Amino acid sequence: MAGAGVIDDYVTALDRRLRGPGHVKDDLLAEARDSLHDAAAAHRDGGLTEEAAQRRAVAEFGPVNAIAREYQGLLGLAHGARTLRTVMLVLPLTHVMWELNRKFWIGAWNDFDAPPPDWYLVIARLNDISAWVVAGAAVIALLIGRRLARTALSTVTLARLAGTVAVVAVGLNVTGNVAILAGTAHLDAARLLMSPPVAAATVVSFVIALRLAVLARRCVVFSSV
Amino acid sequence: MKSDALRGHLDALLLATLDGGQLHGYAIIEALQKRSGGALDLPTGTVYPALRRLETAGLVASEWSTVGGRQRRTYRLTKAGHRALAAERTAWREFTTAIEGVLGGGPWPAQA
Predict the structure, then answer these.
(1) Strand ranges (DSSP E) for B1-112?
(2) Contact (CB<8Å) A31/B25
(3) Domains (ranges, CATH) in chain B?
(4) Chain B touched by A61 (CB under 8 Å)
(5) Mutation site, B15, B56, B59, interface A, largest A CB count within 10 A
(6) Is the ipTM of this complex over 0.95?
(7) Tens-digit pLDDT profile for residues A19-78
(8) Do B60 and B15 meet the contact criterion of CB atoms below 8 Å apart?
(9) How far is B58 from chain A (nearest CA, A)?
């Protein structure tokens, strides 16, 4: 049927402009397609031809670039919220897993041959509390974001805020992990490999941190409109 | 009515359309147009992102369900949404009362 693909073309054009979590995107596009077909059906009932009905439905839906911007904001926000929830749960769990592993396989840390310098103790303490501080920041960001969603702030702005918190949180975590690893290697490199299970847990912690870094980077990409 | 003028009130309008029960997206758009006598004229594509933002805010909840033999995402007010709607209505009445007092009384008497 001539013009029967007007809605399909519009949804395809919208799809091409959107980046973000696949299931959220599919859900948004399915709903948009349903709405356009509902509108076209109403216009057909009003006497328009199939092509005219679809063209009118698409025109009423809005210019694809403007609509894509709003949908992209939603996708960025959905990904940002998911990343913050992941940070909130995974970082404390990773930290606890590593500490339990260390206590089981190594027990209490033996003292270094010489008392560690102050800078190392500062890094160690900051690294110990960073997982909890970062997780707490993610919880607070999610709660504040929920309140801000009730204001006139656009979803694009909310997505950028969520992305910023996620990037800072994950950046702190990665920096803390790298700092304690480098510091320990500098003072007593053998300590890093004194227990293979603990070394493996350290590798797992880094893999998780890198995965979170990828998620945080996508927050920036998906909220760039 | 211009869409820019509506945008600031869109959240409250959407909450109001859901006051009577759950609706799918296009039914919400139809309700907005019907209850406004066709005066509310904004791109329908902007309604869905607004609904999803209200869902993020916890004011509406949505789910896919079968309506008229088709799968559709339907929206309903949450308890927080009902409270937000009541607050919006109160604020709107106060606003319109104040504006009506200034604008609605016809020409002001000439000052001496």
Answers:
(1) 23-24, 60-67, 70-77
(2) yes
(3) 3-90 (1.10.10.10)
(4) yes
(5) B56
(6) no
(7) 999 999 999 999 999 999 999 999 999 999 999 999 999 999 999 999 999 999 999 999
(8) yes
(9) 7
